Amino acid sequence: MNEQSDVTLLRRQFSQAISFPENRFHPLVWLIGEPVIGEDVFIGGMSEVNAKGARVLIGHHCDIASFVTINCADSHKRCIGLAKEVERRDIVIEDHVFIGSHSVVKGGAHIGHHSVIAAGTIVGPVNVPPYSLVIGNPAVIKPAYYKDKLE
User: Fold this and answer.
1) What global pTM score does this model have?
2) Are 62 and 42 in contact (CB under 8 A)?
């Protein structure tokens, strides 16, 4: 065996042992459902993309750091008895978006192209315009923050 096939075998065995399906990103990235993910996308380890029951689209040339959660599902109302089903909403992340470590993108979010989600930010069901900077919890959106810098 060569080194490449050893690595491939180790990744496959590791994925089976921890029940994370194999993916093109990292052995510790958990893809649930069938998210649509563009080309030239990086997703760091210990990140989760949950598209079970909703449409989750991640555009081209995105960089998603480690420890990021992109989750279409919200079960809190079901958990406390206010609903019988888990609420699921679509998520759209357009091209050239950076999402910093330990951030959460919740169902209903639409993040415009060339935007940055700062580390630790929680993005709820909002429409983030292109070229924006989003910071904090609760999230503060600075629309067109990067527009002049990129044009």
Assistant:
1) 0.88
2) yes
